[in-house]
Amino acid sequence: MSIGPVEYVILGFPGNKFTGQIVPELAKLIDSGLVRIIDLTFIMKDSAGGVEVVEFDAVEELAAFAGLDAEVGGILTDEDVAHAALSLEPNTSAVLIIWEDRWAGPFAEAVRNASGVILEGARIPREIIEQAMGALADALG
């Protein structure tokens, strides 16, 4: 089975305020074939710093996630949850998502067929790009 690039993202929600607000946009990515959810889990860090994995059916605000077309389960480990929890402030929740970037699959296959390998890659934060693009526009304008 050929698989495109796979990445993970940890999305934090201060105040332990999970909502289903991101579900429609995530569903659009799935339905359009741009991504495939491989695993997804929720964690909460309480005000004392205790960490808990939260099930879809345990919190009403998470019910919308149950309707996603996803192959959820089995990839994320206790170590992954512990890693994500390290970056969380007390009284913060997070969703950990592992997804396949299906849109990049054909390019990834071409790289593999050309005996290419990824030497490095990273996601650049939006704030850094906005600042750089603004500086470029100012310099050109």
Protein described:
The protein is α+β, with helices and mostly antiparallel strands and 141 residues long. The chain has one domain. Helices cover 30% and strands 24% of the residues. The protein has four helices and four strands. The chain has helices at residues 23-31, 78-86, 105-113, 126-140, and strands at residues 6-14, 35-45, 51-54, 92-101. Strands 1-4-2-3 form a four-stranded antiparallel beta sheet, with helices on both faces. The radius of gyration is 18 Å and the shape is globular. The model has no long low-confidence stretch (mean pLDDT 89).
Task: Annotate the secondary structure layout.
Elements lengths: L5 E9 L8 H9 L3 E11 L5 E4 L23 H9 L5 E10 L3 H9 L12 H15 L1
Whole-number total of structural domains: 1
Strand order in the sheet with the most strands: 1-4-2-3
The overall pLDDT, averaged over residues, is 89
Q: Ends: how far apart?
A: 49 Å
Q: Which consecutive residue ranges, at least 5 long each, have pLDDT under 50?
A: none
Strand content bin? 15-25%
Q: Give me the Rg, rounded.
A: 18 Å
Q: Which structural class should the secondary elements be placed in?
A: alpha+beta
Series of H and E elements: EHEEHEHH
Supply the number of helical segments: 4
Specify the helix fraction band.
Answer: 25-40%
Task: Summarize the main sheet.
Answer: 4 strands, antiparallel
Overall geometry: globular
Count of DSSP E strands?
4
